[in-house]
Amino acid sequence: MRAGLSRRLRRWTATAAATLAVLAVSAAPAMAAGDPASPARASASSSPAPTGPAATGGDVLFGPELDWASDGPGGYQERLGETPSLYAVRIAYPLDEPARQQWTTAASAAAEQGAVLVVSLEPSGPLADLTADDATTLATFAQEVHDDYATRHLIRFAAEMNGSWTSWGQQPIRFGEAFRTVAGAVHAGTDDAEMVWAPSYGAGYPFDRAGGRIDDLAADTLQALDTDDDGALTESDDPYGPYWPGDGAVDRVGLSLYYFGKGAQEAAAGTDVPLTENSAPVAGELESRLDETWGYVQPQAESFVDRFSVARDLPLVLDTGALYDPDLGGDGEEAVKRGWWQQVLTALPAHPTIDAVTWLESEREEAEAGGAVVDWRATADATLATAFRTDLEESGLIRWGPVTDRVTPEDGTVASVQVRQDGGNGEAMGWIVAMAGGLAIAFLLAGLARRLLPSWRYPDDGKPGRDLRIDLFRGFIIIMVVVTHIEVTSPWSFVALKAVGGITGAEMFVMLSGIVLGMVYPLALRRGTEWGAAVASFVRARKQYVVALAVVLLVFVLGFVPFIDTSAITTFTDRGTGGGGGGAQGRVYDLYPNADRLLDYPPPWYAVKQFLTLQMGPWPFNIMGLFVVLSLAVPALMWLVKRGAWWVVLLVSWALYGLHYAFPEALSIAPQFDAVFPLFIWQVLFTHGLVLGWYRTQVTRALTGRLGLVLVTAFVVGYAAFLGYLWAGHAYGFTPAPFPADLYDSLYLGGYQRIDLQWGRLVDVAFVVVITYALLTAFWKPIAAATSWLWVPLGQASLYVFIVHVFFVLAVANIPGLDRASWWQGTLIHTAVIAVIWCLVRWKVLFKVIPR
Fold first, then answer.
1. Facing residues of 664 across strands?
2. Residue 405, C-beta contacts closer than 8 angstroms, at least 6 positions apart
3. HEC profile for 567-599?
4. Which of 119, 403, 470, 565 has its CA 20 to 30 A from that of 434?
5. Is 663 helix (H, G, I), strand (E, B) or coil?
6. Residues 6+ positions from 420 with CB-CB distance below 8 Å
């Protein structure tokens, strides 16, 4: 029997170790992703530098143009090993629903890294069909994205309009009209968006003459394009000027300048020149292109850079990349791509108006390669990515991210803690003081009831096992959690938000979970051995982890079901009452970063890691990861407690608590819960719960003895009196000596913040636990008669209730026409949800699957 248990223990220990390893493997990336502390620098261009947190490096923004269908910023950042300062995405215009979704996805992912978003608008129909309403819709949506994600946009409309390969190409009159219309709407309707005019490098213009496209030009178009007045469109005509939309419409210029690996300085390459082998760029090729001397039949009087960037004092975005065909011989991939990016970096100091560079990062069919699929990526190969990062960093020219305010899933998790904002008026502290006074009075009444009404008392036999008082209290607390997350107005929500003063259901949920586990652990030891109890605890932790993954995945899958909008729980819209304050109001946080990458085959490791380490998930569910980790620690903690080393458990617990305050970044881990329930802070509630649960009988006996009652009464009355005294000084304008006059105004923000469990929160937890236990002991019979039928079964299955409530939050969010401010609707919904959950518990629905 013992050998069998040993084998099982080793198996489950391995499972636990693997789970902890998966959770821990992302701790370092989580720390690395924090905002750098180095000071921001001014941009080298004439445009204002991007606003936001401090960035690192030089002055030139850099980032990739991704294939967003198979790649994302998370994967690119991991491959490169650095945080880009911009990303580029191509969007169909006019905007349709897929375009809006693609824009939102790109903006959300870029915002997570604090990057600028370059949006290339590609007309999906004739330029003549584009309307002012289309432009207004675009500007409105761009502003919404900016408001939601703090996104800074560079809007590049109909890029490469001088080319023959785009449907909008070589139509200077219609292009100019369309560009000015879009620019007018963007300038009038957005706060932080710039219009980019971005033709293609002009060598070889007018391109692909054999295609016959330019043979049928309308008279007005030919007149506009025929800049040398010879009656024809030839290499002698200006490749840029006819497409200039006007100074007032353009905020910055761009230039598409890619290396296709063929051609010579005296002859432009094109689709009619075959790509026969890969070749490294000739020395000085990029500089010659920027000087407008490479590949032209007719010499150019002035370079694009001087003519449109320097002369007009406009910053320039350089769009570039190097083509490599893995099916061809010739020079190697590193020689081709590194040779090109080194030329880009070498040229930047001589062209200070170039303040942004995008690198094409995709595999795609390329006409220049005869329709073959070629590789433009610089980070697909780890060795090449390392060389790329090294050269970018050593150049000292690149400005790394973040360069705008980061909007991360962690921020969203923190924002979901909608704390009371004191604003210096004492309103939040007023509720805490009022509840402290009320609970202190209730405590004194409970003392009288113990003497005068002994028949009402809880029949405590002192034996190990469940305590119905704890179960009833847990039932009350878990329903308060459910009510808080189903955000409608009702008497239920009033009680949930106001009844317990300076704490919330989360603190009590964690504390009471520890108490219950500490109480029932001796029963597990009596039924078997210590090994068996440890194995059972690991099994419970594994079940919690698997169910947590299942909930995260199921919510993600439900998002693809028609008529179900999961965004209510997979994103979070800041109400301005969270940790970011009023300035973050309206900001939208994506809580499922890179979840769409899980649909790739095979899915990239960075997305799988985020899933396995619970870095994604619905916001009402984020504390579940904390329970998984704490459950894994139970056997080790109880091993110490059983041997009387409870003081070691508490000493280490407080040491970790203090270390987190001293070094918060060093002790941060990646799972979603850690942003709002920091593991090394919140464990202090759980460990104290375990110890109290194990020693419940002894603690109860000590606190109900004569000395214990005196001390507890002094604590309860003293704490309430302390708060009342400070409040009176604030309310009546006197200094509450010996305390500072302004102490009360700063007390809530300095002592009662939830995420970090400040001292006031911890005192309040002890305060509420002691008084609640006293009240339930003294008034058990009437309270149980009225409420035990509801609260006790829910409390005994509190984890089950917490897990299933996620889907009730989602269901309520999808009720059409719901008025969340309506008391009668809110009361009906809260009551109905509680009733249905109670029925699920009563009928034990999925009890074998979902942990309780």
1. none
2. 51, 52, 53, 111, 114, 150
3. HHHHEEECCCCCCCCHHHCCCEEECCCCHHHHH
4. 470
5. coil
6. 427, 428, 431, 577, 748
Are 178 and 158 within 8 A, CB to CB? yes
DSSP strand pairing (372-375 vs 363-366)? antiparallel
Q: Which 8-state DSSP code applies to residue 603? A: P
Q: How far is CA 637 from CA 203, 307, 493, 630, 703, in A?
A: 72, 72, 36, 10, 24
d(CA 778, CA 384): 72
190: left (phi over 0), alpha (psi -120 to 50) or beta: beta
Predicted TM-score (pTM) of the model is 0.77
Quote the tokens at residue 604. 């990239």
So what's the pLDDT on residue 529?
87
Outline where 644-797 has alpha helix (H): 646-662, 679-694, 696-704, 706-732, 743-751, 759-778, 780-796
Both tokens of 62, joined, read: 């850099």
Name the CA radius of gyration of the chain, rounded. Answer: 33
- d(CA 370, CA 262) in angstroms, rounded, equals 13
Could you give the CA distance from residue 719 to residue 202 in angstroms, rounded to a whole number? 78
| DSSP three-state, residue 66 | strand
Asked whether the bond before 206 is cis by omega within 30 degrees of 0, the reply is yes
Strand, coil or helix: what is 88?
A: strand
User: Per residue in 134-158, pLDDT tens?
Assistant: 999 999 999 999 998 889 999 999 9
Which residues of the chain fall short of a pLDDT of 70? 1-57, 208-216, 263-273, 411-426, 461-465, 498-502, 575-585
DSSP 158: S
Dihedral sign computed on CA atoms, order 244, 245, 250, 254: negative
Cβ 233 vs Cβ 207: under 8 Å: no
